[in-house]
């Protein structure tokens, strides 16, 4: 059964059981606790905690999805037979609609429907805080499963590490010795101090990796032999090692999806992950003397292979390929020099490794792999520590540059080289606050900031919204911003505790990690946001604001570009 067939079979199976089919959310999550989307349940968190109503949003207490996921923890391991960065997670979710009996029965029935036999299952054995999951054990037995194994908290209890959130015992399904499906029973809520409290409405959260399901369904020895990778690997030359072929295919596939969700290569956050992947692959290409068109062909194959299920790949193909070549061009200018510097270095510690990265763009993985014994003391942790020190120095320099105002509290930066430019970006910064407030007044409170970037010439604001704006909505938004400007609203700043700031109704960027004390900027009653500045003192300083473009940025994310008209 092909991967496309498996996706469809899974979704249709759960649709027949009363589940609403929910599209994959972006790889950029609406969740400040993670850098990228790591699991199918992330977009459903608020339904387990009663912050949102599934009946209102889905017309059902049950949902199913195929979610795009990315885990940065496995980057260094990619190249073996099982580790990946990007993957797809099949999941079914219940928010009080059903619990253990139905969830386990669905698991057994689904595998029966596609002709796969369960080898064995595991259930939670219990500990001092949570008892043995006897109910799941009995249900599996009643369904005819003979091999039911009891495992401890490490294997069969899911909960947020070092954080708060829904959690509970799990049962896992194995086929041919491979864990294929994990079914989580969210019975508890883990508080910040680690204490568990019973959830008012227990729920079900499951996750099954499509790559593993394809592997057992297609009777392959590893995930790279499945149809998810075979066509990409066929494009790569057989003269390079199998490990390098796997790394390149994984990294190009992941990069294509990151590009499609509006992520751009940079030196921080998700953009840094994308840059690492691309540059690692490009080093292999350089060393192996591959023709430059091969990588483009591989990325187009990803788009063709996945485009029928993820249409955003096809609609953004031109932008994806263009962005790839731009990053390639940037890196190629220093790549050869970086490799030579790496080869002539007698020893490489974390500081030297970071200098190679900062000067020549060489990723940690390449430095470690090609330096051999010269980097025996170099570890990922020590390299990341050097990176962190560099970021702190850069941040301090920016704060000094802006007279203590610091950076915007979003994924973009205020860029200004002198006082004149600082004045321009300050006006655009305040105008961006007014723009978000206006969008929420025109389109509704579902609008949330997803990122922004301000230069001397323009502001670029990304926000959550499922469709293209009409010309009338764009004009109404622009007019509202200019109305606020014309009212000569005073910009007031108030310092307060983060919790009180959020309770006050101030908007905040969910990806930002805020300190315990924050600044709240208000423009009359028109807008109110957590921010670090800088801002104008009165909206009349801004001048006339114009929206110059509205476009898609990622799946479910729109982008507006605006400027100040003198």
UniProtKB/TrEMBL annotation:
NCBIfam families: PRK01584.1. CDD domains: AlaRS_core. Residues 375-402 are annotated as: Disordered. GO terms for cellular component: cytoplasm. Belongs to the class-II aminoacyl-tRNA synthetase family. GO terms for molecular function: alanine-tRNA ligase activity; aminoacyl-tRNA deacylase activity; ATP binding; tRNA binding. GO terms for biological process: alanyl-tRNA aminoacylation. Keywords: Aminoacyl-tRNA synthetase, ATP-binding, Ligase, Nucleotide-binding, Protein biosynthesis, RNA-binding, tRNA-binding. Its EC number is 6.1.1.7. This is alanine--tRNA ligase. Transmembrane segments: none annotated. Residues 1-560 form the Alanyl-transfer RNA synthetases family profile domain. It comes from Candidatus Giovannonibacteria bacterium RIFCSPHIGHO2_12_FULL_43_15. SMART domains: tRNA_SAD. Residues 381-402 have a biased composition (Basic and acidic residues).
